[in-house]
Structure formats: structure tokens, C-alpha cells
Amino acid sequence: MRRVAVWFGASGGSKHEEKTMKLGALVLLAAVFVGGAAHADRLDDIKKAGVLRVAAFDSNPPFGYVDEKSRQIVGLDVDYAKAFADKLGVKLELRPTNPANRVPLLTSGNVDLVLANFTITDERAKQVDFSVPYFSSGQQFLAKKGVLSSPDQLNSLRIGADKGTVNEIVLRRDFPGATIVSYDDTPFAFTALRNGNVQAITQDGPKLVGLLANVPDKENYEIPAFTISNDYIGVGIPKGETALVEFVNETLTELEASGKAQEIYDVWFGPNSKTPLPRLFKIGDAKTN
Amino acid sequence: MNFDVVWNNLPYLLWGAWPQGPLGGAALTIVLSLFSGIASAVIGLVLGVWLFMARGIVHTVLLLFLSFFRSIPVLMLIFWTYFLLPVALGFSVPELATVVCALAFIGGAYLAHGVAAGLRSVGGGQWEAGISLGLGRWRVLRLIILPQSLRRMAPSFVNQWVALIKDTSLAYVIGVPELSFVATQVNNRAMVYPAEIFLFVAAVYFVICGALDLVAGAVAGKEREHTRGDKAAKTAS
């Protein structure tokens, strides 16, 4: 990014063409904007604009996906996003995202929050801020029945992972013998599994459960009952926006206290949902790893 | 083959979440193509004429500018504009404007060379004839050279526009819900009908590009009749 700025700057200074002069002026103008933007507070900006811009998944039921009837993005992450917008009294604007886009969307300032099954990691925390976790899940695998039963087998398998996810990193680190193929998103990886390009795919357990629930021939697949890591999911927030982080954390705590967090969970993972899963983690619980 | 999945999602594939949400699907692909097509033609024409007329340092700067846009992938330019411009310069460009600008500048850079080549293809005798009639360089260009060369450039314009229609699918990288993006969403939910969904998508692109070809052909045909019948129609096309 620095190189881009230098490139524009250099051509602006060296030539006397009117065009390049204008470019130089543009750079100058931009510098003013940067100076101005650095002091602004994002929470105030959101209130002023009356719009909360949130990036959510569009292909990962039940966290975020496009509903066939309403043609809108819905899901657990979206319900949390709505709760934030409602508390602020602003309109919610959703942007579809994919695993690899989440950090750039925040660092470039194109969205205010990322709620897209975003695992909290130290590496990511260097570039973006995270809220307290609002969901927890273990990294699991999905394979055709009878292929995979224990983690020792992983080192000899071809495994599909989502590009830019923690799952991919953990797998590379802990199972160097495995052949890892990276895909744009989970449904893509699943198609590869179906076609026999890979023997298993990896993702957070609840995401795999959500995926399998929508597969017509789900009886041919299974999610072996072991996890290789425990992930905590948080809200991604632009770096250094302390007021916004505070607001998000406060709201999450309130949602848990009022029972609204449980309500949201039950819609997507409750006993009567398509993907019933017991709720083992509540907002405010201590992390166990 | 089970095309129910296409039928059930037809409105979403054709115009996205509109009118409850933003325009998407095939309609957005057409809108993006129209705007970037027109903008690329204007950029290509202006820069092409300029490249042809300019001499010395201006010519060199212009060549560098054009080669910059010709040598970077559309995907990279979209990505840079959307994710890096805000960090480098402090202001963000909306998604749709990003895509239209990237396609317009890259398409325009390609067209500019085509336009310059088209202008060069008109023989030197035409220039001499115009100048000996007492016309200035720019008037010769406007009245004599451009009308002849524009006809020769027409196929390369259509080529570029067709390429551009297909390149709108690269808008997926910043989450613009054009046709292939919404098709991927539907495919990801339906899971087991990729062949049906993407056959439909291919058919829609074929129809859009085919329609452009037909319109361009009809316009060119009319133009030929027009010029044969009436030599004064030099400002058309």
C-alpha cells in the first residue's frame, strides 16, 4: 500500500503536465483526509450516518446465508448484527464476505464490523480488534462414511480447507503429513469432497453440521467425533476503535443477561432447529485454552 | 438434470434481492456492463486520439499510463482500488464505482491503442488532401479521418465490450452481487446442482453478449447504407 502512494506521489512531483499536477493535488487532498480520518471515532460516525455496515457470510448456514424466499442474508451472525444495529437505533447494511476478505474489509474501512464466524487469533489481533467471544466451536472434519475415525489418520489424507481460515493454519501446523488443498469457501470444499478430489474437509464443527443439514444425501457422510482445536468466535472491529469495542462487548453481555443470546442460539441451533447442538459456551465464560 | 433449482431462484439470479435490497444478478451485470462499456469507449476514444496526435514527452507519458492499465490484471485493479486506496489515500470508493472504474480504465487502455491504430490506418494522402483544402490538423481529424477509421475500429470495440461483459464477473472479489456471484450463493445453498445453475449462467452471458453483437451488427449495417446513400453523414457512428 505504501508503494502505491509513492508511485502516485513521484509522478505528481516530477512532471509539469497539467494532468500530473492534478494528480499531485489529489494526493495532497488525500493526505488531508487521512489526517482528518485518524481522529474520527467510528462509533460516532456510525450514529451520524445512521447505518451500521456489517460483513457477514453469504454461504455458510446457519451463520450467514442467502434465504431462498426472502433473498436476504440471514443467520446467527446476522441476528447478532441486528441486535447491534437496533441498540444503536441505526439501519443495518449487510455486505457478503468470504473467509479471505474479512480482514481487508476491516482494515480498508469498508465495513464497521465483521460477524462472519470470525475466529479470534493473536495473528489477526495485530490487524483488527476483537470483541469478547460470542460463540465457541471445535475444529472438526467431514468425510465419506468409514474414511476417518481418529486424528492419527489425518497425516495420510488429502484434506480440503477454506483459504484464510484458522482451520487451514492449525492443520498445516499440527499435521504436516496431510496434503492440504485450499478452497474459497466450505461449499466449494464440500464439492471437492463429493467429487473425490479430497478425502475429508475441515471446518468448525457447527459449520459442518449446518452444511451437512442441507445436503440431500447426507446419510453418505459423517462428522467423526473428535476435535483438533477449540476456537472462539468474536466480532471483528477496526483496529483502535476503543469506543466501538466497548459498545460491542457491552451489548453482547446485555444480550446474554437478557436471554436474547440464548434465543438467537435456539433459532439456529436449538432442539427444534435444522441443526440441533447443545450450547456449551455462553458469552462471558472463561476460555478453556 | 433438474432445473427446478434455477426456476425456484430465478428472480434472485435475474435481479438479486431487489426491490427489498440492492439490485443484483443478471440485471446488475447489465448495468455494470453498460456503464463501464460507455466509459471505456469514451476513455479509449479520447486517449486514442490524444495518443495519435501527441508528440514528445506527452506521448511518452500517455504510453506509460496506457501500459500501466494494460499490464495489470482487472482483478488486481479492483482489489487495489477497493482495499488499498482507503488505506493509502484515506477515502473509500463504493463497490460499484470501483468495478466500473477498473473496467473502464482497463478497457479504455486497450481501446486507445485500437483507436490510434485505426487512425494510423487512414492513408497519408487523406491528410495532405485535407490540409491542402486549408483545414487545420484537428478539423482534418474530425471531418475526414475519424469517420473513416471509426468504421474500421467498430469490430475491436465490440470485441472489447464482449470481454468487458464477461469481466464484470470479477466484481465477486469485493462482494458485488452480479450474476456469477449470486449464482455461487445459490449453488452453495443448493449444494448438488452446480451443472444446472452454471449452465443457466453461461446461457445468460451468451444472451447478453449475443444481444450486443446483434445490436452492433444492426447499427453497422444501417451505417453502411447511410454513408452509401448520403456522403454528408460524416458525424454519425
Shape of chain A: globular
Tell me the β content of chain A.
Answer: 15-25%
Work out the helicity level of chain B.
over 70%
**First and last CA, distance of chain A:** 36 Å
Q: Give the second-level CATH assignment, the architecture of the largest domain in chain A.
A: 3-Layer(aba) Sandwich
Return Rg of chain B in Å: 21 Å
Q: What's the helix count of chain A?
A: 11
Main beta sheet of chain B: none
Strand content of chain B: under 5%
Structural class of chain A: alpha/beta
Structural class of chain B: mainly alpha
CATH topology of chain B: MetI-like fold
Number of strands of chain B: 0
The CATH architecture of chain B comes to Orthogonal Bundle
Topology of chain A as a string of helices (H) and strands (E): HHHEEEEHEHEHEEEHEHEHEEEHH
Number of self-contained structural domains of chain A: 2
Question: What brief labels describe this structure?
Answer:
A: 289 residues, alpha/beta, D-Maltodextrin-Binding Protein, domain 2, six-stranded mixed β-sheet, three-stranded parallel β-sheet, 21% strand, globular, B: mainly alpha, cell membrane (chain B), MetI-like (chain B), Polar amino acid transport system permease protein (chain B), membrane (chain B), transmembrane transporter activity (chain B)
